[in-house]
Design goal:
The structure holds two protein chains of two kinds. Chain A is mostly beta strands. Chain A is built from no helices and eleven strands. Chain B contains no helices and eleven strands. Classes of the chains: A mainly beta, B mainly beta. Chains A and B meet through strand 5 and strand 10 of A and strand 4 and strand 5 of B.
């Protein structure tokens, strides 16, 4: 059974055209994360939500925003995608008592034309 | 902040041989060390983890060792199989932090 679901799995957008990626979870975990992973690199944390509290990484560009309307869903908005934003975007979740144990979704591969 | 280094970046072994991947970390407060396996185009999957109150943990053909004094930890895979071929990431975290600090990854190829 899928626990962390990401939609779409593949997204193509044009340079500068806003795009939204979706993540949902059936685990009822408190914490949800968004990572960016470029080819042959480690996942890079963009931000995370602890319940409704938003935590941005210092080096995350302003171009990236996130929303978490409820426990189950979290969205990644890229306001004006550039060619350098083409990557795999991974969503992950963890439970508050063990925030370090993270469960990843299958990812959304973003292509920017 | 934490800095995790991982070696080697690529590793090729013959089927049946053992593979060892090593990571070092910089923050002595780190106390949780997971290993993730990522096959091409797929999600990172947790394969084993260790907390700082133990020095070694085994799960079938996979083991992880931790040396807190030296601040390094290693992944050991015995009797490797072609399906073990993937990129492996180590990571470090600490109590109260939500961040996982990842190593740069090791591409393991098991040659049949």
């Amino acid at each position: 059974d899928a626990m962390v679901i990401q939609n779409p799995r593949y997204q193509v957008t044009q340079f500068g055209k806003p795009v939204t990626l979706s993540c949902s979870q059936t685990l009822n975990h408190n914490v949800m994360y968004w990572y960016q992973q470029k080819s042959s690199q480690a996942p890079k944390l963009l931000f995370h939500y602890y319940d409704k509290d938003f935590n941005n990484e210092a080096d995350t560009p302003d171009n990236f925003q996130s929303r978490r309307p409820n426990t189950s869903f979290c969205f990644l908005d890229i306001r004006s995608p550039g060619l350098g934003d083409a990557a795999m975007y991974l969503c992950a979740t963890s439970i508050h008592s063990r925030p370090d144990t993270q469960y990843f979704g299958p990812g959304t591969r973003l292509t920017v034309l | 902040g934490e800095n995790v280094e991982q070696h080697p970046s690529t590793l090729s072994v013959q089927e049946g041989d053992s593979a060892v991947i090593k990571c070092t970390y910089s923050d002595s407060a780190s106390n949780y060390f997971p290993w993730y396996k990522q096959e091409l185009g797929k999600r990172p999957q947790l394969i084993i983890d260790i907390r700082s109150n133990v020095g070694e943990k085994k799960d079938q053909r996979i083991a992880v060792t931790l040396n807190k004094t030296a601040k390094h930890f290693s992944l050991h895979i015995t009797e490797t199989q072609p399906e073990d071929s993937a990129v492996y990431f180590c990571a470090a975290s600490k109590t109260g932090a939500n961040n996982l600090f990842f190593g740069t990854g090791t591409r393991l190829t098991v040659i049949p």
